[in-house]
Amino acid sequence: ExxxxxxxxxxxxxxxxxxxxxxxxxxxxxxxxxxQQDPGMELHLIHYSYGVNSTEKGDLSSESTVSRIxxxxxxxxxxxxxxxxxxxxxxASSESITNTGELFFGEGSRLTVL
Amino acid sequence: AQSVSQHNxxxxxxxxxxxxxxxNYSYGGTVNLFWYVQYPGQHLxxxxxxxxGDPLVKGIKGFEAEFIxxxxxxxxxxxxxxxxxxxEYFCAVIPDTGRRALTFGSGTRLQxxx
Lengths: 114, 114
Known about the structure:
The complex is a heterodimer.
Chain A: E1 4-7, E2 10-13, E3 19-25, E4 31-37, E5 43-51, E6 54-57, E7 65-66, E8 76-78, E9 87-94, E10 104-105, E11 109-113
Parallel strand pairs in A: 2-11
Antiparallel strand pairs in A: 1-3, 3-8, 4-5, 4-9, 5-6, 7-8, 9-10, 9-11
Chain B: E1 3-5, E2 10-14, E3 19-21, E4 24-26, E5 31-38, E6 45-50, E7 56-58, E8 64-68, E9 73-78, E10 87-95, E11 103-104, E12 108-113
Parallel strand pairs in B: 2-12
Antiparallel strand pairs in B: 1-4, 3-9, 5-6, 5-10, 7-8, 8-9, 10-11, 10-12
């Protein structure tokens, strides 16, 4: 069983609010990822990190930002949420040594912006 | 950049029927290939993976997939599905070199009727 946790699981907020989605893993993985998933659509990579103080943007342009101050923690922040940000956000991590690409996923954070 | 196509968006089968879900990718180089499964209300988890060697790989719960390099395909199969196989299935690919992040297909929703 993978040890990667996301909070909150569900969040409903109003437009203009600042939100932070938390993601923590206890496996000591260097690599962490944020994917955005809409119903019936593929997962889109929005951010990834290969280690502390390393963050990169993914394939899908996103107004969110991320930080990686500690290995185990990879929070995602939206400074001013809009209805277009309504989606499910999935956090994942992977080992760096084997570098095989196998990801361990959290249960996701479903965000609704009114 | 690589991409993944899953042509079956929604599949409905009766128990004991055979299953084959299509997955094609586009990328000119060497790739690692994965199938992930998401059961209702649960997080994404790895079903099986291909890195090298025997193109027929076996995963958990009786699933298998065959990598056909000439067809850029990695179809998922199961000889006899069960009601508990009801889930969403995602094919994913990661290149062997360059930026190492998974690219997912849009997923196939499998519904198995008892």
